[in-house]
Amino acid sequence: SQQGEEDPQALSIQEGENATMNCSYKTSINNLQWYRQNSGRGLVHLILIRSNEREKHSGRLRVTLDTSKKSSSLLITASRAADTASYFCATAIIQGAQKLVFGQGTRLTINP
Amino acid sequence: SAVISQKPSRDICQRGTSLTIQCQVDSQVTMMFWYRQQPGQSLTLIATANQGSEATYESGFVIDKFPISRPNLTFSTLTVSNMSPEDSSIYLCSVGQTGPATEQYFGPGTRLTVT
């Protein structure tokens, strides 16, 4: 069964707006990683956040992690049409083994 | 990050046949994994490919159906055996290094359609 749930399942916004996607998980984690997938192709790694971190930034991306609530969020600022994709969170629940358990994903559409 | 290639990128196969998917990395990695992504779904881990020993399979996946090889630190294969239409999916390999928290990178995937 999937570890995480993502919300919303689909999100449609106008270009230039900010997009926020949320991920919840069930068990204690070592780290959480966010990925982007365009049209059923391979996954692009976006950000890894460790369990002892609360926030990370990478360009227009900001990821937060709240281990007390077992949740994470991905914020994309100033969205562009090229950001249209599916976004997945994945949790690594065993230190060293690095097996990832994926959420169901959020389908993001940026309208020009 | 590692550069990962997969062959074939896509294939259409008849039921009852087998297909072997190759995953090649441009640098040595300690961890290699195989995932399946069924149409419209998220990714599910099939197994961890162990160098020089049998792969470690997740619940619901068995070696007879998905035999895996990993002869060295840069290469692995996944075979989908005795295929049925239910095996139509994208199969992705991923790589990472052991450590407290390390990124895992994915190949471009192999889109398999079974008719």
Structure description:
The complex is a heterodimer of chains A (112) and B (115). Chain A has 112 residues and is mainly β. Helix content of chain A is 0%, strand content 55%. Chain A has no helices and eleven strands. Chain A starts with a strand and ends with a strand. In chain B, strands 2, 4, 5, 6, 9, 10 and 11 form a seven-stranded mixed β-sheet that branches. In chain B, strands 1-3-8-7 form a four-stranded antiparallel β-sheet, with no helix packed on it. Chain B has 115 residues and is mainly β. The termini of chain B are far apart.
Low-confidence stretches of chain B: none
- What does the average pLDDT of chain A come to? 91
Q: What overall geometry of chain B do the principal axes of the alpha carbons give?
A: globular
Write the H/E string of chain A, N to C: EEEEEEEEEEE
General shape of chain A: globular
Ends apart, CA distance between termini of chain A? 36 Å
Tell me the Rg of chain B in angstroms.
Answer: 13 Å
Oligomer: heterodimer
User: Main sheet of chain A, how many strands, which sense, barrel?
Assistant: 6 strands, mixed
Helix content of chain A: under 10%
